Amino acid sequence: MIELYSWPTPNGQKVHIALEEMGLAYRVHGVNIGKGEQFAEQFQRISPNGRIPAIVDSSGPDAEPFSLFESGAILIYLAEKTGQFLPSDPVPRMRTIEWLMFQMGGIGPMFGQAGHFRNQAPERVEYGIERYTRETERLLKVLDHRLGEVPYLGGAAYTIADMATYPWVQVAERLGQRMGDFPNVLRWSDEIAERPAVERGMAVLKQE
Length: 208
Known about the structure:
- This is Glutathione S-transferase, N-terminal domain.
- InterPro entries: Glutathione-S-Trfase_C-like, Glutathione-S-Trfase_C_sf, Glutathione_S-Trfase, Glutathione_S-Trfase_N, GST_C, Thioredoxin-like_sf.
- By secondary structure, this protein is α+β, with helices and mostly antiparallel strands.
- It has 2 domains: about 1-85 and about 200-205, Glutaredoxin; about 90-195, Glutathione S-transferase Yfyf (Class Pi), Chain A, domain 2, CATH 1.20.1050.10.
- About 55% of the residues lie in helices and about 10% in strands.
- It is built from 8 helices and 4 strands.
- Strands 2-1-3-4 form a 4-stranded mixed beta sheet, covered by helices on one side.
- The model has no long low-confidence stretch (mean pLDDT about 95).
C-alpha cells in the first residue's frame, strides 16, 4: 500500500495520475497547503522540504517501509517498482528522463512563478508578470516543437514524462497563454485527457 500525502496541484496531480495509471493501491492523506499543513512536523518527517507530494511505500525495497519526496523522484520510483511507463531501452529511457527533468527544472518552476506574479502576489509587479509570462510561452513553444516531432514527450510511448507535464499544461491559460497557439501541445493534451486513469488522477482530493 502506498500512503500518498498530497493536494490537488499540478505537482500532486502528476503522482495521482501515475498511481492510477500503474494500478497501485494507495491511500490519500490530504495536506492542505492553503492552511499551511505542509509545515507540520509530522509531514516534514516524510518530506523534509515541506512540499507535496510525498509517499510512504509500506512494501519498499527489501520489503521495508520507504518514504520519498520530490515528485520526479516519486515518478521514477513508481515506474521502476511496477516496470511501467519508463522504457528499459537506453535511448527512450533517457529521453523520458530528459523530458521529465525539463518539466521539473523548467515548466514547474517557471509556470509557478508566472502563477504567483499574475494571480497571487500581494501587489502587481509588472517586471515579474512579463518575465515569467514570456518564459511560460517560450517553454510551451519548446513542448510544441517536440510534440510536432513525436507523439509523446519521451518518443513513441506515453511515459512518466507526459504524466508530469500534463497537469501543468492545464493551467497555462490562467498564465496568459492561448493554447490554440500551440497545436501540437493541444493535440497531445486532448489525447491524454481521454485516458480514464488521468481523469481519475486529476479528480483526487478535488472535493476538498
